[in-house]
Amino acid sequence: MSLRDAGPPIALVVIVVAFSILSPQFRTIGNLQNILDASAVLAVVACGITFVLLTGSIDLSVPGVMATSALTVSLLVANNRNGLDLGLLGIVIAIAAGAALGSLSGVLLVSFKVPSFMTTLGVSAIGLGLATLLFAGVQPNITDPLLTSWARERFLGFSYLVWIAVACVLLGWALQRHTRLGRYAYAIGGAEEVLSLSGVRVAPYKVAVFGLAGAFYGLAGVMITSQLGAGLVQAGAGLDFSAITAAVVGGTLLTGGRGGVLHSAVGVLLTMALTNGLVQIGVSPYWQGGVQGLIVVVAVAAAVLPLRRRNQVVK
């Protein structure tokens, strides 16, 4: 492990120790549970967005994809709007809807050669429009026992949402380390031209990466519906920036080719521990956004400094 890879875990330990000294409440088991519960949805989103970042692209479709999945699942499981009660099948369909929107981002990217942030922003708008149509002015509250149990019931002291997030992180790590899709994601971000010249068709793998990311976002939309007990159009608002922040802080480069799911998971814990610690010691919420932005700038600068020195260029 390089010093750059070790930096985020060390920073996480320093933050935890510092806030534990400054606030006795921070080091309680109950507060640890709060941090992990708050990190669950963001960790799943970060898993998806990490694969996109590894290819050197940016994904801003999170709010729209999560909104569509949230409204889809809330209308397919037992709810107060209709007589449907598909249970687990409804959850699967909602995740599939997220994967479909993610794949649409990938298809638009490779077909029209439009920058990824523009295509994904457009797909986010499509997703928000679909969610608004499904919402239809009446909030669908869920009563499905399986889905509500994800947020309410606990195993070994932690909610089911936390264990789902852990499973997603392990799955994401396995995919990036032991599958062709994961290896090519790194290669696309590091040297796409070289990969193309070697005879690999890059376009299908880009679409697959965005589709995989969309599936993670769809699951996150289902998870947040479990937390809220209802499907909301604003379910994923702001989580795109938060996930990119966590990934970058954890060591995943915006330029692609470096980092990974475990890096982003550490970044999620770091940012959530920092946010929780600032609240515990009484820092105003108005300062927390500024602190988060400053951390992103510092993390990006530290990550790209060796590249800038080597290439002597600034993009």
From TrEMBL:
Membrane-spanning parts: 6-23, 35-58, 86-110, 117-138, 158-175, 207-226, 232-254, 261-283, 289-307
Keywords: Cell membrane, Membrane, Transmembrane, Transmembrane helix
GO molecular function annotations of the record: transmembrane transporter activity
Membrane topology per record: Multi-pass membrane protein
Source organism, top-level taxon: Bacteria
Cell compartment(s), UniProt: Cell membrane
Record's GO cellular component terms: plasma membrane
Protein's name in the database: ABC transporter permease
